[in-house]
Amino acid sequence: MKVKTIGIDVAKNVFQVHGVDEDGKVLLRKQLRRSQMMEFFAQRPPCLVGMEACGSAHHWARRLMKIGYTVKLMAPQFVKPYVKTNKNDAADAEAICEAVSRPTMRFVPVKTVDQQAALSVHRARQGFVQQRTAQANQIRGLLAEYGVVIPQGIGNIRKCLPEILEDAENSLPCLFRQLLGQLGEHLKELDQLVKEMDHQIQQWHGNNEASQRLAAIAGVGPITASAMVASVGDARNFRNGRQLAAWLGLVPRQHSTGGKSLLLGISKRGDCYLRTLLIHGARSVIRCSGRKAVVDPGDKMTWLQSLVLRRGANVAAVALANKNARVIWALLAHDRHYQRSVACSA
Question: Which contiguous run of DSSP H or E holds residue 214?
Fold first, then answer.
């Protein structure tokens, strides 16, 4: 009998493989070391392979696709319901093998090396930004213990910290002054690292035509555009723009029964990083729209300003982020350039 479907439970060193034939009969249960993986699959006829979209899954998917296998990745939460018994590697591999054969299963596109490289820079930058925020909050908290209060905003810390260190009348201990100097230098190092990551993202954005097309949308800059292009890949994997917005967690969460529809807040599913970028970009558009006089009654700003008045800035920001996500899908799926007149009439 020929193995039709294989499920692989990916790990760091030990991989569990589960294979079935076209009737679902188990033909293969095997544990492989990392060094045995490619040799084992190279000796078998290609078939459908399923894996969870976890660490190193895209790497193994690319390697298996090179030797003829059809590889499909799935979100771990969609595989979990197929685990029948206690959790172990064999049960996980069996559940993956079962899940990948379901006709209604949703799959994660396999990312290219270039996409993963761009996302790696984004993840590193995100980590540096979080460290910078934590460092700024630590400096602010330590100074508050001595009665020195700095106004909100990381820029105020950069501005006030040298003045505090030079002020001999604030009665700060010498040891604490030395510590503040070290923390201030660390904050500058994190600033420099974030700037370097921004420069790398700008370079990648400048060399990617799709990313440049997305940057023409109001509220979408190079960072958001490059992250969307690297994460989404082929937008035709989504049937329409609403599916992309739902994938980002920007559509209402449903709790409906008995024919009664109940829509709650946004689902917040999917990639939190992409959703945050889109919403922050929408907030900047709202902030700028308040300063501009809108002349054209069909202008996008008029719709946005009326929504802000009716529902508030937070709801308007999410609505604009949702709309931008759908516009992004249209540009990527149909290989088009952004046209403001079309977007405003939508």
Answer: helix 209-214
Helix, strand, or coil (residue 169): coil
In whole angstroms, what is the distance from residue 254 CA to residue 246 CA? 12
Fold of 5-100: Nucleotidyltransferase; domain 5 (3.30.420)
Task: Encode the chain (346 residues) as per-residue pLDDT tens digits.
Answer: 689 999 999 998 999 999 999 988 999 999 999 999 999 999 999 999 999 998 899 999 999 999 999 999 999 999 999 998 888 999 999 999 999 999 999 898 899 999 999 999 999 999 999 999 999 999 999 999 998 899 988 999 999 999 999 887 888 899 999 999 999 999 999 999 999 999 999 999 999 999 999 999 999 999 999 999 999 988 888 889 999 999 999 988 888 888 888 888 888 888 899 999 999 999 999 988 765 544 444 455 578 888 888 889 999 999 999 999 999 999 999 989 888 765 555 5
Domain-by-domain residue ranges, the chain? 5-100, 113-206, 211-345
Tokens of 26: 């188990």
The Cα–Cα gap between 52 and 24 comes to 20
Residue type, 47: C
Instruction: In whole angstroms, give the CA distance from residue 141 to residue 176.
Output: 13
Which stretches does DSSP call E strand in the chain?
5-9, 14-20, 26-33, 48-52, 70-74, 252-254, 263-266
